[in-house]
Amino acid sequence: MPIQVNLDVMMAKRKISLNELSEKVELTLSNLSILKTGKAKAIRFSTLEAICKALDCQPGDILEYIE
Amino acid sequence: MPIQVNLDVMMAKRKISLNELSEKVELTLSNLSILKTGKAKAIRFSTLEAICKALDCQPGDILEYIE
Amino acid sequence: MNKMLKALYVLAWILFIGLCIRTGVILVTFLISIGINPEASSNLYEGLDLSSVMDANWVHYTLITGLIISIWALKSWMLFGVIQIFQKLKIQDPFHFSISKKITQISHVALLVGVLSILSFAYGRWLVDQGLMLNHFSESVRGGMEFLFMAGIFYVFAVIFRRGVEIQQEHELTI
Amino acid sequence: MNKMLKALYVLAWILFIGLCIRTGVILVTFLISIGINPEASSNLYEGLDLSSVMDANWVHYTLITGLIISIWALKSWMLFGVIQIFQKLKIQDPFHFSISKKITQISHVALLVGVLSILSFAYGRWLVDQGLMLNHFSESVRGGMEFLFMAGIFYVFAVIFRRGVEIQQEHELTI
């Protein structure tokens, strides 16, 4: 997976649990874990926006390209 | 659009034209322009990966969250 | 797979042309029977003999022949709808609003064909009960239940298809 | 919209039970006619009279009655497939592989019903040409062309549906 989802790192920095994030972002826990574990194929801009807002960060903090 | 796609900025920095990028990323021109103009609803991780590779950059260089 | 679809497309055209010819022939013999030669009513189409009805009452005759013609015309229209769907359909990208509308339309036409067929069948039976002779009539309006069932199938298909259109639209905006 | 689907689901059950009863009744009267009382062949189901065939040749009798029973049993099976689809179908999330398989299966059964109906119809006509009397036979095996057409429709539907399954799988992994 050359695109890595660093959702757990940001969550740890902001001290937010998966349940809290799920509520704030309005995603089900199962969808959030699909995203966290890198099983997702695509990400909606609306989801990205909600996560950035909830975690007060930039898309670059969550998504990383690894060569 | 709180998530902004800064594809044109990166393309200008790397001196790459839309046609060149379209070839390297294996996306049609119409799909690329949907992405550039912010009409897309979601982005595939495979697309993001191909763009990062072609432009030698990070996802954070292309996607920006604006409050 | 694509070959099979092409074969079905050709079959739909053949059935459509066949139905159009049938509808045209019975329409012409009907017009001849009321305008030029009443004898024509004894063989409207492949042995369909409604001369006994014509002799008894021209209102019943016009009504029942009109029903047969309408049913056949509606069946032709239904098949034309199927042909139009084949023309628009792309297998890689099948879900479009215009096709969803066509499917709903076909479901309505099938419903009408079913109801009219069942009504005509009952009407023909009633005429027989009145002592009239109807030769090869029931074949002309058979399949009513099958068309009702088909109408239901097409309706369900239309509902599923509409959801497909929504999903495909999102899919197209996922780059 | 969901009410309409529920109504169709109930209708499918009613048609299915009706067809099962029909199939069961004719099977029982057939078994009685060959085992206990040959008289039963004069009224196998709602006036279906094949006693003339039975008197002439038991092979033809068994064959043609067997065809009718098979056709009705296959129609019941087809309807059961439709019922199963209704049970699995969720309108918000309709495209699943198991349903796509069921639709393909129904298309094959419809094809078989169509072919058998047309064959039986021709067979019955041939028996009549041999001078035998078949009362209410053609009603028992009618609708062959309609079922062939339905088979084609279901096939196209299955192809479209399979593409829907692919698109929906991607859709589900777009978070």
From TrEMBL, chains A, B:
SUPFAM superfamilies according to UniProt: lambda repressor-like DNA-binding domains
Top-level taxon in the UniProt lineage: Bacteria
Pfam families assigned: HTH_26
Single GO MF annotation: DNA binding
Lineage: Bacteria, Pseudomonadati, Bacteroidota, Cytophagia, Cytophagales
The species this protein was found in: Algoriphagus ornithinivorans
PANTHER family (alphabetical): DNA-BINDING PROTEIN, DNA-BINDING PROTEIN-RELATED
Domain HTH cro/C1-type, residue spans: 7-62
Name of the protein this chain belongs to: Putative transcriptional regulator
Automatic annotation (TrEMBL), chains C, D:
Source organism superkingdom: Bacteria
Keywords linked to the UniProt accession: Membrane, Transmembrane, Transmembrane helix
Bilayer-crossing regions: 7-36, 58-86, 106-127, 147-165
Name the record gives this protein: DUF2975 domain-containing protein
Organism: Algoriphagus ornithinivorans
